[in-house]
């Protein structure tokens, strides 16, 4: 990898990125291109540890722009999932409400409407493989952070420790590093997702393919939402969303570690839905209950000169197809602020990054939180709104 040693704010500083998600890894790559001495401390035991979740789409003005800046578009073009950006919206009986099947070539790279999908694990691999050997320190779950003699001392769960001049928290929504900037706590939106993973859907629930169109499937009706997405390894992920009371995981009486109990709940809750959806639930051997939280809007903190956060650690919001893109854009802005030479000192650079990050994320977060009921528990009116938003002119 070619690096340049510009005179900039990172030169001579040891930088610790905590968390190797899309935000942290993109940042590591961009900083290394600027000549930084950077390590990524990641909780996962190794690179093969499975990345939770299905595909993510990258956007022209954010995720794809970052890959371009990172010199990784060629690698992305090899690994992205062609055709997976098509989607279909159906009602609870699997009647098609909107079919946005995108014939190959309708949108392509360079077109701002093109939102190519990639498996989360493949995106992670592209970013990791672009880093200098040994950059990611696996099995490093940060459990404590102290500051003395001008340096941060990080302690990890496996008993090891490391020091650094600048710590960047990219460890997602449960960030410990955020506590060093603000005592803000995330708030429950009122909606939650029951996530299911199916490794071998072609055998376990082939019926879903009669409805599913190779891309993403959204099923909406009876104030319930079900999204099904392909994974890069041939598996499927589904997200069954609805409005639930806070802490429902504990008060529901359902043991979410027992697939039979979750299945019994889902077929009751989705009573009257097409049998292919029930078969989908039956095929799932592992469910995760995910309450959807967000960081209160207009959150601000006092900029510090040696610690900062990005991605979900800084601006958690309910899933809206933007989270990975926003985390990667934070990485690009932060690396630019640190390496451009435009700022006199590191505090000014970090303050400038924070301004950009807040300005970008709050409008999106606000809109998503306001629309949470339409997303998780859509009524007829919100279904029509959604169809129009997605291009109702293509209704068939
Ligand atoms: C159900 C669901 C569906 C979603 N779908 C989409 C989608 O389709 N498109 C999209 O753009 N976004 C989606 N999102 C949002 C997206 O996943 C996040 O916004 C995005 O992953 C944030 O990236 P990040 O790098 O900030 O953090 P993360 O991706 O959360 O990565 C954090 C990393 O830090 C590591 N870590 C955590 N704690 C520690 C610790 N203490 N020490 C060391 N390492 C640690 C983790 O192992 C992980 O690798 C979805 C979210 C959910 C919940």
Could you please describe the fold and organization of this structure?
Its EC number is 1.14.13.-. One of its GO terms (biological process) is response to antibiotic. It is an enzyme of class 1 (oxidoreductase). Pfam families: FAD_binding_3 (PF01494). It is found in: Cytoplasm. The chain has about 400 residues and is α/β, with parallel strands linked by helices. The protein has a domain of about 170 residues: FAD/NAD(P)-binding domain, CATH 3.50.50. The chain is built from 13 helices and 17 strands. The strands form 4 sheets. It has a 7-stranded mixed beta sheet with strand order 5-4-13-14-15-12-16. Helix 1 links the parallel strand 1 and strand 2. It is globular. The N and C termini lie far apart (about 50 Å). The N terminus is likely disordered. Bound molecules: flavin-adenine dinucleotide. Flavin-adenine dinucleotide binds next to helix 1, strand 12, helix 9 and helix 10.
Task: List the SSEs and their pairings.
Layout (H helix, E strand, L loop, with lengths): L13 E5 L3 H12 L3 E5 L13 E3 L5 H7 L3 H7 L7 E4 L5 E5 L16 E3 H10 L6 E2 L4 E7 L2 E6 L4 E4 L1 E4 L17 E12 L2 H4 L11 E6 L2 E7 L5 E8 L4 H4 L7 H11 L5 H8 L3 E9 L12 E3 L2 H4 L7 H17 L6 H25 L1 H5 L3 H10 L7
Parallel strand pairs: 1-2, 1-11, 2-7, 4-13, 11-17
Antiparallel strand pairs: 3-6, 4-5, 8-9, 9-10, 12-15, 12-16, 13-14, 14-15
The protein binds flavin-adenine dinucleotide.
Flavin-adenine dinucleotide binds next to helix 1, strand 12, helix 9 and helix 10.
GO molecular function, one term: monooxygenase activity
Pfam families: FAD_binding_3 (PF01494)
Cofactor: FAD
